[in-house]
Write a structure and sequence with these properties.
The chain has about 110 residues and is an all-alpha fold. It has 3 helices and no strands. Helices cover about 90% and strands about 0% of the residues. The longest helix is centred in the N-terminal third of the chain and has 40 residues, at about 5-45.
Amino acid sequence: MEPDYYNLRHRRILEDARRKREEGIILFFALFLSALFLFLAGLGFSSILIVTGIIVLLLGILLFIYKDSQSKKLLDKASEMEHPPEKLVEKEVENAITDLLIEGISYLMKHD
C-alpha cells in the first residue's frame, strides 16, 4: 500500500500552522509578563524601566501579529490544497463531454 503523500503534506502544513500560532501566543505572554515586570519595577525606581516595558510590550504585539500572519498563510495554503482551483482545460473537457452526452441522449429520444 502506497503512503498518501498529499494527505501527509496537508497534515504537516496544518500542524505547522497550529505550531506557529501557539508560538506566537507563548511569545506574546512571555513578553507581556516581562513588560509588566519592567513597568511595575519602573514605577518605584525609574522612568527608563517604564519606557523599556512599553517597548517590550509593543515588540510582543508585533511578534504575535507576525506569527499569526504566518499561520494564516499556511492555513490558506492548506485550504487551497483541500480545494484546488479548477484548471481551464479540465473545465472545457468536462463541458465538451456534457454537451456530447446531452446531444446523444436527445438523438436517442428523437429516434426511438
